[in-house]
Amino acid sequence: MNPNRWTGIFPAAITHLRPDQSIDFHATARHLEVLIESGASGLIVCGSLGENQCLQPEEKRAVVRCALETARGRVPVLSGVAETSTRSAAAYLRDCANLGISGFMVMPPMVYKAEPAELLHWFRSLAAVTPLPWMLYNNPVGYHADVTPEMFAELADLPNLVAIKESSANTRRITELRNLVGNRYQIFTGVDDLFLESAILGIDGWVAGSGIAFPVQNQRLWDLTIAGRWEEARGLYRWSQPLMKLDTHVHFVQYIKLLCQETGLGTEWVREPRLPLSGAERESVLKIIRTALARRPRGWAA
Length: 302
Known about the structure:
Blueprint: E1 8-9, H1 25-37, E2 43-45, H2 57-71, E3 77-81, H3 86-99, E4 103-106, H4 116-127, E5 134-138, H5 140-143, H6 149-154, E6 161-166, H7 172-181, E7 186-189, H8 195-201, E8 205-206, H9 215-226, H10 230-244, H11 252-262, H12 279-294
Parallel strand pairs: 1-8, 2-3, 3-4, 4-5, 5-6, 6-7, 7-8
């Protein structure tokens, strides 16, 4: 793979925790290995699903180190960048570069809702910190800051901005981006239950969330779409859609960690202020998960 041209599935990995909320690096490494073996084209750690904003600075760097040691150069390793100030984000970029990271997935500034001019300044400032390639994570639903296709056209002169994680939940954006900037960026979908719709419109990759709990089947879905085997893809997509929808809720971290627990790839422990699910909500999510797993596709090992 061209190191500056990312394609395929780049799973958004969870940060595995123990009941006391300390990081379980052994479990994290084990899960990353499973993702690589499933055929993932890259790994993304310390994203939203990785609970970036709840990790201490030294913990984030330790997770990156763990991922790099696990990957051993087999696939690119990216880190989410979710900071509240330009200075702290720049420091994180430099530290990760020194650790040997392949690139980044940069979010808008956290907490402060930046105006368009401030957003452009933020991304330009961070692009100047390191020549490493990076993906811009556009999620106006979650972060209340929208990078429009017109803004991506303005940023097209940044050579190390190579990809977009498009999570606006508006699939029109894919065609609008293609019409406006052509193939200037690799476009990744970041909304699991819009994957197939996005694939039909023409994407280069998928930052998968819920699929980290069933990575072999998730990879199979991607491979079917690349091969144009749409009828088979629709069948697998219909099965996985209730699980993919778990990635679109405000409690998506808790939901996906519970899903990983049910498939034997993790535990449900989260970092406060998040709390594990309880009561009726937990039972409702478990019902969704267990119903889907009871109808698992043929060939899925028990």
